[in-house]
Amino acid sequence: MSLIVTGTIGIDNVETPTGSAEGILGGSCAYFAAAASCYTSTRIVAAVGDDWPADHRSMLESFPGIDLAGLETRAGSKTFRWGGKYLENMNDRETLFTDLGVLEEAPPAIPDAFQDSEIVFLANTHPGVQRGFLKSLPNRKFTVADTMDLWINIARDDLVGLLGEIDGIVINDSEALLLTEHRNPFTAAKAIMEMGPKVVIIKKGEHGAVLVTPEGVAVIPAYPADETMVVDPTGCGDSFAGGFMGYIASRGSWEFSDLQAAMAWGTVSASFTLGAFALEGLQGLTMEGLEERMAKYQAAARVGDVNSIV
Amino acid sequence: MSLIVTGTIGIDNVETPTGSAEGILGGSCAYFAAAASCYTSTRIVAAVGDDWPADHRSMLESFPGIDLAGLETRAGSKTFRWGGKYLENMNDRETLFTDLGVLEEAPPAIPDAFQDSEIVFLANTHPGVQRGFLKSLPNRKFTVADTMDLWINIARDDLVGLLGEIDGIVINDSEALLLTEHRNPFTAAKAIMEMGPKVVIIKKGEHGAVLVTPEGVAVIPAYPADETMVVDPTGCGDSFAGGFMGYIASRGSWEFSDLQAAMAWGTVSASFTLGAFALEGLQGLTMEGLEERMAKYQAAARVGDVNSIV
């Protein structure tokens, strides 16, 4: 099924305890699409300014599965810029600066050729923009959104409205706590389900992720990564969502077992993002590369006796 | 194979955000043995004072798999007492008081009938006592120890000596950080392996556990538990170790696949401890009860496509 995403494309500065990079390609939409495009063709709807570097376009173009027909370059506008610094645990980060730029203008238009999109991902951006986007896609069959603490704090009404209109949400554990006042991820997920979405995924960074639906509960660890494998966590959540939604779109089905398998594919996709700055970890990645890492992940995350796996 | 454990038996006061209990049976040895005894007969070596309540003895006696021949009651001595308070996240706790009592005296003797023990668990107590215990068991074939931040801080030399004499260690993530200065659990585990033990298990509480050996790495999530299932985390780490070692002793084998399966059984055992104060969650538990919960755990923690589980 056709997969479409809207969200941010940014120019990032990132500092980690072991390295740093300036002026690199980032943004929720970029990481999502790069990860999803390994599984299925992925349509982008996003806007950048005329300061957007040519090598960032080349980087996105190097992913054959990304359809850039909905990427708008606006003359006189500035690309979204973000700077962040990771703390020593590599799980928490500080935002150093945010220049919204083109995100403060009207949202990008959806090309006519994208109107038939069925699987929709609303990557992190203002929930008002997310609501407008999904209303412009009358053929949508399965819509999932991401959000962040900023919108929970300053645009809660829009976010609550959005929750009533989507099928699923992907959210960090700290954001789920902020939204529901429940620290326990399973209890928080049930509280979010009561706000609308029937599929709730809570991401716990290095500790894995949790899925709660009316059909059941799933839990998975993160891909095992020692210090030498952790270069830059930026975009891991978006890449997780990209792998998740890319797999769902390629299956064309979102039964509980599909969602559970999609969580594992999302984890595997994110593990490639973790190992390099920007999209470099995902560049050139094929289904064979994903399957090879999935086999390692399954072997490491096997639960219980080999002969009694249910 | 025969399983033996030494450690503490205590009288605990516990406060959680949702309840409290005073004067209940606790201690590393009690929780370990109660969990392990579901899998195999478990020999206890421990000491209590003459203030030890009769109903605590009855509670331990209600576990048919626990061999109490090495439980010493000392006239004129006081039982170890511990009081703790859990913070709102149920993962962190403060120690309110510790009265060492009988733990400050000579360690309990190992009965002659226990001298042939092959599988040895050194539950949390002073590493000097742990070293003396394992040296008294010439037939030991697989020895695993637990420890805590206190001993890392005040008895590091004894602990480092112990690490050179054991096959495995079970340790919390915060303790692994304190011991190795590495936050990443895989990197910390490799640093601990260089200190001696070839089997390193790092417990992450509600986030599951990690196993590192020269043969490979395993990761598992905790058993999914919403707020209503979390009554008292006290003893969950000891019960995890009990399930782990009980399974290993019942198999009589500690290949990588055995250790990985044992991690899952430890997780299942700990999930019963979590749901009640003291040993009540484990009381009356049978292998059928464990297998039923294991099936639910495996279903929730399945990684990847159902048809491609490796």
Describe what you observe in this structure.
The structure is a homodimer of 310-residue chains. With 310 residues, the first copy, chain A, is of the alpha/beta class. Chain A has helices at 28-36, 54-61, 127-135, 149-154, 156-163, 173-180, 185-193, 236-251, 256-274, 287-300; strands spanning 3-6, 10-15, 20-26, 42-49, 66-74, 80-86, 93-99, 119-122, 142-146, 168-172, 199-203, 209-213, 216-220. In chain A, strands 5-4-1-8-9-10-11-12-13 form a 9-stranded mixed beta sheet, with helices on both faces. Chain A has a 4-stranded mixed beta sheet with strand order 3-2-6-7. In chain A, α3 (127-135) packs parallel to α5. The first copy, chain A, is globular, with a radius of gyration of 18 Å. Chain A starts with a strand and ends in a 10-residue tail after the last helix. At the A-B interface, α7, β13, α9 and α10 of A face α7, β13, α9 and α10 of B.
